[in-house]
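Sorry to interrupt, but I need a hand with the structure work. Could you add the entry underneath, on a fresh line?
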Amino acid sequence: MSKIKKSTVHHTVDAKRWELSREKERITYPPEHAGPIQMDWRKRENYSATDLNYRGRNNTP
């Protein structure tokens, strides 16, 4: 005969409250913020750094 194992969780949180706390933790940027480049892993493309081309000696703006 097996014993029922007691849960080690101190308290349970309902799903709605859990989603609200997750939403507060999520980082969102305004649309005009220059965020990181979004790369699609399915395309297997390399990061070309075209936004940094102006730093070269021949590419002065």
Remarks:
- The chain has a mean pLDDT of 77.
- The first helix runs from residue 15 to 25.
- The radius of gyration is 24 Å.
